[in-house]
Amino acid sequence: MSAASPTPNHASDRFVAQVRRAILWRSGSHIVAQAVQWGATFLVIRILQPADYGLFAMTGVVLVLLNLLNGYGMASGVVQRPEVTRREVAQLFGLLIAVNACLAAAQWLLAPAFASYYRQPAVADLLRVQALLYACTPFVALPQALLAREMDFSGQAKANIAGAFAGGATALGGALGGWGVWTLVWAPIAIFATRGLVLTWAVGGLPRPVFDVRGTGALLRFGGFMAAGQFFGFLWTQADMFIGGRHLSAHQLGLYSTALFLAQIFVSKFAPPIHDVAFATYAKLQHDRPAAGRAFLQFARLICVAGMPFHLGLAVTAEPLVLTLLGSQWADAAPIVQVLAASMAFYTVYVLLGPAAEGLGRPGLAAGNNAVAALVTPALLLVTVRWGVIGLAASWAIVFPLLLAIGLHRVLPLLELSRRALFRVVAPPTAAALAMAAVVVLADRFAADLPAPVRLLLLVGLGGAVYGGWMLAFARDALGKLWSLARRR
């Protein structure tokens, strides 16, 4: 007798368990990899010279621009499409190889021109060696997409951790061995090469590449929209540095960039795993919009429960945190951190909209959101920068709420969700975080004379207790739903 078909509830339970495993693998490996890389980074900073980082930063602008075209968007199409044949995978492999070979050749040929622009002959040599990164890209992008398509993030986790250790060892060895700026060049190459090897092994090898684009129109269109979205994203997220570098002193821009690094830690370091899992989840649910909407609410709840207290907590503890972590010479960065961190609370929700639109087969919608941002942000920054570095930071308090409102207006109908449904999810952690912030601000009036580390420890402990207590008292249902997800119930 044949086995009974799984009931919808059982299938749903299995999918929830699959998502849970994906989040645990992706987030856990990301945290481990970041810990290894940060540890190595801080040790290397103490060994290398500022000039080494200056030369490396010059090459970074070129790499970021060219990597917008490296084909990751086409690879993401494999995750999003309901059906993909082995020939299409082989064709995509061929496309990735061809595209990245062209990028490597372009970087090699243009290297002297960039070196001439920067008036640093060494930049040409650095860029030519960094062209090796493009050789690794097809062996990272394609297997990563194939694993994500199956919601298998364990292979990605192993590759991330292996790459982090390879990069950390290369960086430390190079710094101690006197490689200078070449330490910063070879460490990323070691990371990419190791990730490529482990990912290719995890998918059981890749097919022989097929250099024939016939029949790949859908992948090319999807990749084109993804690349367009990344390009517009590059424009608006880098506009502050471009405009600030023109109107602010080097000291002011240094304060701003360091404050921005602190304010973006959650979004840049801890949100990406949720982004990756969310994109794969929506791709699986693209023909069941109500289910996709429910998944969006789950991801929104998860990211808000963690992100809201982080950003608002950072805003109200900025001064003792900056003094403790960076030293008194960075004290002027504290008010900048306060403004940026409070603004980032809106961005926490905004970053969920891109993977939702892309996973549901509407990458043009996500690209459109970034296009709007690319028009609005520079215009506003040109106005607010007249008030100096605080004006530059304050612009995000206008930009992020505006972009969130526009993004929700365009994406929520795609998910068949109302604003009220989303509000019910984000309101509890937001209210708890606001209560936490208010209590910490009041308590800080009595702790202002304490040493910065003691003051920080006291405020963080108090804030954590208030936030946890509020959630248990007034948002127990939200915590219960997250706990049920964690226990596969």
Protein model, in words:
With 489 residues, the protein is mainly alpha-helical. The protein folds into two domains: 1-215, no CATH class; 221-489, no CATH class. Helices cover 82% and strands 0% of the residues. The chain has 23 helices and no strands. It has helices at 8-45, 50-67, 72-80, 86-118, 122-130, 132-149, 154-176, 182-202, 217-237, 239-247, 250-263, 265-270, 272-284, 289-316, 318-325, 334-350, 353-359, 363-384, 388-394, 396-411, 419-447, 452-474, 476-486. The longest helix is centred in the N-terminal third of the chain and has 38 residues, at 8-45. It is globular. The two termini are 30 Å apart. The model is unreliable at 1-7 (pLDDT under 50). Pfam families: Polysacc_synt_3. Its main location: membrane. Keywords: Cell membrane, Membrane, Transmembrane, Transmembrane helix. It is a multi-pass membrane protein. This is Lipopolysaccharide biosynthesis protein.
